Known about the structure:
Elements: H1 2-14, H2 21-33, H3 35-56, H4 67-86, H5 97-110, H6 124-130
Helix pairs in contact: 1-3, 2-3
Amino acid sequence: MWLKAGLGIAALAVGRTKGTYLAAQYHRLRPRRGEKRTIVAVAHSMLVSAYHMLANDVPYQDLGPDYITRLGEERHRRRLLAQLGALGYDVTLERRQTALATLARASKIMAPTSYLPGRSTDCPTRRKLTEP
């Protein structure tokens, strides 16, 4: 009984953190499942993680908040390669330089540095909208 309550409180607390796999899981599940079921799901993930850490004698390694996104992208790539292979094509993939530059540019726009909210010239996204 005490373990269940402790894990529930820890799951609720981890939902308020930023930049962790469990926080991303919490925020991904909450709109679909509701508060209570999300807490139980995150607590279950914490318990399974603790079991594996104790059983294998390894430290905790956070997967990162973008783990599901990266995993989905890799699965999508593998599925498309398998489909092309089934059609008789041999394909090798390499990332284009323009795609890397676009990703770098997008990350700079999406994560602006500190600025004063009242001044439109200090915010990179507002500056882009106001310039002709």
